[in-house]
Amino acid sequence: MKLIFSVSALLAVFFVLNANAQNPDFPWPEGKNMAISLSFDDARASNPDPGATLLNEYGVKATFYVVPASMEPNIEGWKMVVATGHEIGNHSLYHPCSGNFVWSRNKALEDYTIQRMRNELTATNDEVERLLGVRPEVFAYPCGLSFVGKGEETQSYVPLIAEMFLSGRGWKDEAPVDPYYADMAQLTGMEMDNMSFEEILPIIEAAAENRQWLVLAGHENGTEGNQTTYLSMLRKLCEYANDPANGVWIAPVGTVAKYVKEKREEMEGNLNIPGISKPAANGTVYLTAEKGRGIGPDIQYMPEWNAFGWFTAKDRVEWDMNLPKKGTYEVWMDWSVSDEEAGKPFVITSGDQTLQGVVKPSGSWETFQKIKVGELLLDEDFNRIIVASGEGFDKGALMDLKALTLVPVKK
Ligand SMILES: [Zn+2]
After folding, report:
1. 363-393 confidence digits (pLDDT tens)
2. Would the pTM of this model clear 0.85, i.e. be above it?
3. Is 256 helix (H, G, I), strand (E, B) or coil?
4. What distance in angstroms lies between residue 261's CA and the mean position of ligand 1's atoms?
C-alpha cells in the first residue's frame, strides 16, 4: 500500500512538471533530434591546422570566433578556413575581460562603456572583412562576460550584441540551448576543452533527448595542453555526428541560429512559451494561451486553437505580466465549451482578489466567445493571474480557454 502511494505521488509530480512540455518536438532538419555547433575562440595558432584541417576530412563546418590581430601571423591559413566553408565570428578587438584577470587590467570591462564596446566591435568586423573578405554575423563574449562598468554604473552589453549580431555565445555554461526559448543574444556555450569524447557523449545524449542545440566551445586544437580541444575527441565527435543513426545536425552557429529563428517565426501563434506579458500600445494586455503556463495533471495547450484544453478540476493556467502603473482592468475571457459540459464554476484570482463565474455555453467546442468577467485592481510591475476550476468535478471538462484580455478602466 505504501509503495503504491509513493509511486502515484511520484507520477503526480512527474505530470505536474511536464504539464508545460506541450509543444511539438522542435523540427530540426531532415527529422534530426538535435543540433551541435563546434566553436573555437581567440583565433589560436592551431585552429587553421590541425583544427580546420581535421574537420575538413569529415566535411564538418565550425565557427571560429576571432580576435583579428591574432590571425595576422597566418592569414593564408585563415583564408583556407574561410574557403573551406567555416564561419568566422567576432570575439572583439582586444579581448576585454574583468580586471580580476591581471592580464586584462589595462582593458578591464569594469572600465568600459557601451559606446567604447560598440566602436571596438565595429572595428573588429571591419578588420575581419579587410583580412578575410567576410563580415562576422555572430559574436562570442570574451571570458563569457557580458557587462561593462562597475557597481551602480554597471550595464549589460547584451542589448548591443542583440542589435549588432545574429547571436552572442557565452562560455562555461551548464545547459544546452533550448531552441524554442533561447535568447539568441545569450546562447549558452559549453566547454569541450580537455575532455574526451566519452565525457562529452552524455551531454550530447541529454541534449538529443530534449531536442536541444548544443553549442560546444573550445580554444586550441591539439593533443595536450591547457585550453585544448583534443583532436582525438574531435575525430570521434565528427564520426558520431556524421552517422545518420545518431540524428545529429552539425553546423556552424550562424547557420543553426538562422534556421531556429526562421522556424520560430513560422510557428509563431501556435507555440506555448510561458513568459511575461506586457500591455500593447493601447494599454490593453492580451494574455494569450501562447504565454500562459498550464499547470496540473491534464491541462493541454492545443496549438491548432492556440487555447488550453481543461480536463480536471486540479488544472490551472497562470499568466505573468509587468504593468507600467497600478490600475483597474476589465477582465474579458475568451472561451469555448460544448452545451453538455457547460455550467461548471471557475475562479480568476490575482493576489487576494477573486472573480467567480460559471462557464456559459458558447455554442460548441469550436465556437469561441468573449465575455466580461469583472474587474481587477492590478499592481505596478509584476502581477500573476490564475484561472482555475471553482469546484471539483468527476468527469468531463471545464472549458477551452483561449485568452484573457485586460482592458484598462479610464478613471
Ligand atoms: Zn576568448
Report:
1. 999 999 999 999 999 999 999 999 999 988 8
2. yes
3. helix
4. 26
